[in-house]
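request received
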Amino acid sequence: MGGSGRDSPRFNCANDGLRENLRRLVPNTLPPRMPVIFSGIQPTGTKHLGNYIGAIRQYVEGQDRGDPAIFCIVDLHAITNPYDPAELRRSVYDLTALLVASGLDPARCVLFRQSDVKEHTELCWLLASVTATGELNRMHQFRDKSVAQRELVSSGLLFYPVLQAADVLAYRAHEVPVGEDQREHLELMRDVARRFNSRFGEELLVVPDHRIPVVGARIMDLQNPDRKMSTTGGSEEGTVYVLDEPKVIEKKIKRAVTDADDPPRIAKDPAKPGVSNLIDIMAVARGVSPEQVVADLAQARGYGDLKAATAEAVIAMLAPVKVRYEELRADEAALEQILASGAEKARSIAAQTLADVRRVMALGPPPS
Ligand code: ATP
Ligand code: MG
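response:
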């Protein structure tokens, strides 16, 4: 899970350059501080390699940099698509076990279930007052997911980014680790925070930065390498699940779509999305740069070698997670306890923000 060294940062952050410049120019105004880190992940389906690489491994990296680092299982987002209620409860435990198995330590971060902290839904409604419907209608995720819906397109799907803004802004988070697909929602969230602050005359909400990995921010479906690997709407054979058996992982990667270049060429190139995707996956799994992967495979005889090496690296990365997962998943009471104590910590932070928001919006009795 390593990076590609000091000279090539592993993450892109919206305001990194700005903050560093300010620190250099006016050293005392912006002391280095530990950021509040927040991210949410849906308890839908089984999490896949894209989630693991784009999001979960960043959470693990962030838990000692964040003060606090807060990770939320967003069950309220999951209900924006058709779902089975009995399965949702199970999926929340599945994901809790998976996150802990991946390296999140409930003693070093705040891990909780979104619906346990009612401040999220309240803030969502309050932020709706400074969110334009036109902006929501334009979001790519809304467009893609509403087209895919055969029955009811829920208004929750349209409102998804407002709830997501509330999730982050309730904790005054500085940094939001996400995959590339969430960039647009993060921009909206930043606009909402700025608009709220300017409308109500106080710098009350923090405008958060995204944190998107430089390599692995958009892992592609192995069968359709022009589409991201996805929980809803991806192909089964093209999606590697974190908990897939090693044999299954090997089979899926060995059947990945590449290209018909003759002779085969192992290189990162937009014209070669399948091969580029495998190179990125292997780079992350081995903890080296994509350039290093290409150099290591200079003697490879064809795409078969690339696939075999990628499968081996991915299995080595995921196999220990599966073993720990099986142990943790067996004890639902312990998982519930992790979520309950996380919710308590989360509530104490979010309640403070909500009190401030209600005050400036003139809701409830006047402050004494
Ligand atoms: P859906 O397709 O239903 O939106 P999802 O697979 O995107 O589901 P989410 O729970 O919405 O899963 O996303 C959790 C995190 O994983 C987000 O930070 C998201 O940016 C990241 N992520 C999702 N897919 C990928 C991918 N293919 N590559 C890298 N990161 C990803
Ligand atoms: Mg998503």
